[in-house]
Amino acid sequence: MEGNHAKTNRWLSQDLSALIVQQSQHHEIYDLVIVGSGYGGAMAAAELAGMKDGEGRTLKICLLERGKEYLPGSFPSQMGELPGHVRVSTPMEKKPKGFGDGLFDVRIGPDVCALVASGLGGGSLINAGVMEIPKWGDFADRLPADVLKYLQTADYAGIKQTLGAVNKAIEQHPRVGTANPLDRTLALQALDPGNFTLHDHLERPFKPAKLFRQAAVTIKMSAADEANLKQCTLCGDCMTGCNIGAKKSLDTNLLLRAHDQQVEIYTGATVLKLTRERSPGMTDSLWQLHVVHSDEDCRKHQATPLPLRARKVILAAGALGSPEILLRSRNNKLQFSSRLGQQFSCNGDNIATYYKLHTPVNAVADENMPISRASAASAPPLPACWMCLQHRSAKAFCCRSLPSPARWRTCFLRWLPPPTPCMFCPPVI
């Protein structure tokens, strides 16, 4: 990412204001508008970019993202910088608090809370970059057959390659290698159920095989990998945004590919609703997107929402964002299922801590240490290690090693619960 864009605060996108000016002059109709730039929106943009219609004309495609574009170095680096990148929604408040284009979109509910990313690249900006092939098991019968047939191992292998996932990446880092495993890796291996006798709820002992392994990650560990990215420094801040430029987030691959094939990308754009309109002199109806600035101050200077017209629309604003847009769009002419916005399921993630080990494992990053000087001995690595635990019903779940990023250090240490022995290990507290 060292090209002409490196000296600007945007690389791939333009602000919504540029689209407003353009539309005021030309009133263009797009063949396709994609709402959202996470994995769904980015994949759609990359796959459809450059395609032609029946008359041989290249499709005119536009992608809208509610959040900002983040270049390496622009993510919050300290706890004190986080408030300027947060948006919070609660059932008690009619409007979200914080910043409309905040990177960390926190949804607090009565039974489920969610963290949603808002930025060019979506969740890839703040996830761990782990690419684990799912094992559908009992969930397979819930998926349509036409969908399931495309979810084969070979298909996932191609997706991993497209996203730049590398197996056993941590071992390729010059500070680690196979002969010098990290302390936290050794601690995870000690948790492998293959090293212990487990009992199910019927108290029948069994000894599963050693299942600890590392997952593929989309982070540059080897100097030979991805020439346009910088090598990871093992700072541990993957989940609050990579300021080094070592993470293969969607803005470095799929969105870059779409941009290079003339897909127009606009950030800071919030879609309020969709309507179906028929323009004078046209036989077919068009979709009209009502778009406003995500930033509240900019929105105050926008008299009316931008009416953006498109022949086709792909809503890829996430499990929460897309239903919200559809619910705001519902009217007598545009009807949806009465179940829209209901029956959500979540990842099933549970966060647990195991601490006061005999050996330090460097699991909490320090914002006072420059990320450029992080080392395997003094700072935590990326969350690249997974452990699969097999239990009696032949199902499995994964345990991911999650370091606390530097921005979370204060909260993590303050909110740490009372010591509890690990269910798979002898107490070491």
Q: In which range does the helix fraction lie?
A: 10-25%
Give the H and E element order. Answer: EHEHEEEEEEHHHEEEEHEEEHEHEEH
Roughly what is the average pLDDT, rounded to an integer?
79
Give me the number of helical elements. Answer: 9
Measured distance between first and last alpha carbons: 46 Å
Please state roughly what percent of the residues sit in beta strands, choosing from under 5%, 5-15%, 15-25%, 25-35%, 35-45% or over 45%.
15-25%
The structure class reads alpha/beta
How would you characterize the largest beta sheet? 7 strands, mixed
Evaluate the radius of gyration: 23 Å
Shape annotation: globular
Describe this structure in words.
Helix content is 17%, strand content 19%. The protein has helices at 16-26, 39-48, 145-148, 153-163, 183-190, 254-260, 296-300, 318-329, 409-415; strands at residues 14-15, 29-35, 61-65, 86-89, 97-98, 104-108, 113-117, 130-131, 198-199, 205-206, 212-214, 216-217, 264-267, 269-277, 286-293, 306-315, 385-390, 396-400. Helix 2 (39-48) runs parallel beside helix 6. The longest helix is centred in the last third of the chain and has 12 residues, at 318-329.
Furnish the topology, listing elements before pairings.
Blueprint: E1 14-15, H1 16-26, E2 29-35, H2 39-48, E3 61-65, E4 86-89, E5 97-98, E6 104-108, E7 113-117, E8 130-131, H3 145-148, H4 153-163, H5 183-190, E9 198-199, E10 205-206, E11 212-214, E12 216-217, H6 254-260, E13 264-267, E14 269-277, E15 286-293, H7 296-300, E16 306-315, H8 318-329, E17 385-390, E18 396-400, H9 409-415
Parallel strand pairs: 1-13, 2-3, 2-16, 3-13, 4-6
Antiparallel strand pairs: 4-5, 6-7, 8-12, 9-10, 11-17, 14-15, 15-16, 17-18
